[in-house]
């Protein structure tokens, strides 16, 4: 009598860059009948976070920064149940590592192997009033809220004469001068001055009253770039009319604006927070080691310490490279780790030796508005129009489907000839 080996159950939590790439790379193994894969995520879409700043400023429509998970994991031809990645839209409430059970708000799911890729959320660093009075940029809802806030501010300022209220409405402040902050503030400048203002030029809104401010806690913006690129980026932002406050700490954010170290205050109704993230972890029962900021410590194979069936990757994983220390919380890291995790799952099932994760940065590209970008790619420093073209090309081909690539390319082309849409949609 032939004895069939029971399929191993693999559960992936999180459908960001880490989780979704692991799921895709396991599809061949699923077809072989060796495993069952269940992917759990709060939303039914994969969010392309590197382009959120364009959604927040009308450069892209919301649907262009997302891809439906079921489309991503679907096979081209119909296969019987259990032969494809199974998707559950749910919130994970607890993980029991001892009993190997994932609890969601809908059900309990058993697993043999777990892939934890739960990502990160906005970190307000304990700044008083930051969570209540500023808007972050981490989710699709955040991007739509920022866009609505900017448009609302102009509508309200249109009927306000000279005074403190109009000053607050026409002052836009971005806290955090890393990649996200620099990209967002550059796009805000183009959206506010280039698109919105001309529609309000015959109202109480005056171009001279528009203030756009970027606040950096560090002495430099884009601190991970070489000095020449940092200096050039600062010049570009200044040319766009953006005031950059460096070596400046935020002590409090309130309804009327921002309080800075040294007693300075900025009046504003539009505070946008891009000053850091922290990992998201559900309740975990079992022996697992965490860092002070709640990241899961992993070994060279991306297995959680003290566990032989729990892989962790992306923003929630703390992996210390021998050469560069802890790897950064970046999308390119999560994608590279996904390859290692998927390969190691296959190696476990086939009895092969696990593969160690090796991280080598491919570099970084930052958009600074239309026709301007800066990059450090494999040691090559680039800037200007070529860097901007390369930035768009690289990110376009990081989308998983050709349908989405064509949609985004079409939108970007339209925006070269027509102004951005100013419809408030939430």
Short synopsis of the structure:
With 426 residues, the chain is an alpha/beta fold. It has helices spanning 17-25, 27-31, 52-55, 69-73, 130-133, 140-157, 164-169, 179-200, 227-239, 331-350, 385-396, 402-417; strands at residues 8-13, 35-41, 45-47, 66-68, 86-89, 92-96, 101-104, 108-110, 113-116, 120-122, 135-136, 171-175, 211-215, 242-245, 250-254, 257-260, 265-267, 270-273, 277-279, 283-285, 296-297, 310-312, 317-318, 320-321, 325-326, 363-367, 373-377, 380-383. It folds into two domains: 8-122 and 278-361, FAD/NAD(P)-binding domain, CATH 3.50.50; 130-275, FAD/NAD(P)-binding domain, CATH 3.50.50.
Summarize the topology.
Layout: E1 8-13, H1 17-25, H2 27-31, E2 35-41, E3 45-47, H3 52-55, E4 66-68, H4 69-73, E5 86-89, E6 92-96, E7 101-104, E8 108-110, E9 113-116, E10 120-122, H5 130-133, E11 135-136, H6 140-157, H7 164-169, E12 171-175, H8 179-200, E13 211-215, H9 227-239, E14 242-245, E15 250-254, E16 257-260, E17 265-267, E18 270-273, E19 277-279, E20 283-285, E21 296-297, E22 310-312, E23 317-318, E24 320-321, E25 325-326, H10 331-350, E26 363-367, E27 373-377, E28 380-383, H11 385-396, H12 402-417
Parallel strand pairs: 1-2, 1-9, 2-5, 6-20, 9-22, 11-18, 12-13, 12-18, 13-14, 21-23
Antiparallel strand pairs: 3-4, 6-7, 7-8, 10-19, 15-16, 16-17, 24-25, 26-27, 27-28
Helix pairs in contact: 1-10, 6-8
